[in-house]
């Protein structure tokens, strides 16, 4: 009898491979690893990109009002492709900025964060054998999402040029080589992913740079997936130019946005995709066959946030005016802290990220020749474990073949309370003193 049980048990155990082929090679995720390290060791977490300050009061109050409404309707499903008040105000708001009338029901779709909007784009547009151009360094999920859709990511790097006489490097010093970019477009190219302002560098693409990309998209009949989640976070009077507003681009662009970044509420996971119906209809197909519907009360609160901002657009009380002002100051503090200890900052023109050069710290964390792990990754792990300061290695934002080009750089997030940035400064100062003492 026991033998019978044993053989039945062995038969019941699955032995066939369970993993779908599309998951091969994409199972590791840098965020899972580094978020865990930061949770375990960090006293100051400047790693993952989220504010440690609250969203504005008007937004929190809108959420509380939404939950407390008598009719309970906001606790139930709403329209699958976006809560009507939210798609209406998004169409009105961005229609004004883009100088064209948007149909809220066909040209806007609400998603579970910008992440899901990106996922819908790649699933909707990319077939086996299609190529998608990705500008490097890039938000890491672009590569894996293209691969999961069966496509091939084709990388084109931003190339740094040394700044003039002793000045700090700026994210504007990182530029595309026009000939190199043009060489990546061919018959198989289905889309290009643009992320301006760019995570991780903070680069804000100029009108001229966007025109270069737009001309190539039109020439080769290529789509543009424009991730603009940091659109309000631009500094020093720089302008965020929407590529969809350039000649010939509306028809071939999906704009992606995030209430998480816009209103400092990353945990709400409200995002959107915007574009012509001929593109968005395919995103709706992916959405209705996967997520179908996003949290109603959060959408209602974000709608109210945008209604407020629509009325205050460009005025000093607007959150979209105040937030970048505050963040610019935080950026400047972190630039100073890092510069003072010799961790050379690349001054970002936008986003809430700052990339710094760790080359001067090699004596603290010696390189291991022929190691499989990029130096920046080992450095970031050492720093969080030994100094309590969390940051993200830049090799997480590039393809496998190019990791050595970025392994002297790490990314900090400065969307943090003054006290957090001061604590980071103290860690850096102490570290510098220890380095200087014999
Ligand atoms: N795009 C970029 C460039 C991002 O940095 C992020 C978040 N880190 C996202 C998209 C995802 O945004 P969300 O939290 O709204 O899904």
What does this structure look like?
The chain has 438 residues and is α/β, with parallel strands linked by helices. It has two domains: 24-55 and 319-436, Aspartate Aminotransferase, domain 1, CATH 3.90.1150; 57-312, Type I PLP-dependent aspartate aminotransferase-like (Major domain) (Aspartate Aminotransferase, domain 2). It contains 15 helices and 15 strands. It has helices at 2-12, 30-41, 57-68, 84-98, 113-125, 141-148, 178-183, 207-220, 259-262, 277-288, 296-311, 319-341, 375-387, 403-406, 418-436; strands at residues 44-45, 108-112, 131-136, 152-157, 159-160, 174-175, 189-195, 223-227, 253-258, 270-274, 344-346, 353-357, 389-390, 392-393, 409-413. The strands form four sheets. A seven-stranded mixed β-sheet has the order 2-10-9-8-7-3-4, with helices on both faces. Helix 8 (207-220) links the parallel strand 7 (189-195) and strand 8 (223-227). Helix 5 runs parallel beside helix 6 (141-148) and helix 12 (319-341) packs parallel to helix 15. Residues 49, 113-115, 139, 195, 199, 227, 229, 258, 260, 266, 271 line the site of 4'-deoxy-4'-aminopyridoxal-5'-phosphate (PMP). 4'-deoxy-4'-aminopyridoxal-5'-phosphate binds at residues 49, 113-115, 139, 195, 199, 227, 229, 258, 260, 266, 271. Its EC number is 2.6.1.64, 2.6.1.7, 4.4.1.13. InterPro entries: Aminotransferase_I/II_large, Kynurenine-oxoglutarate_AT, PyrdxlP-dep_Trfase, PyrdxlP-dep_Trfase_major, PyrdxlP-dep_Trfase_small. Pfam families: Aminotran_1_2. Pathway: Amino-acid degradation; L-kynurenine degradation; kynurenate from L-kynurenine: step 1/2.
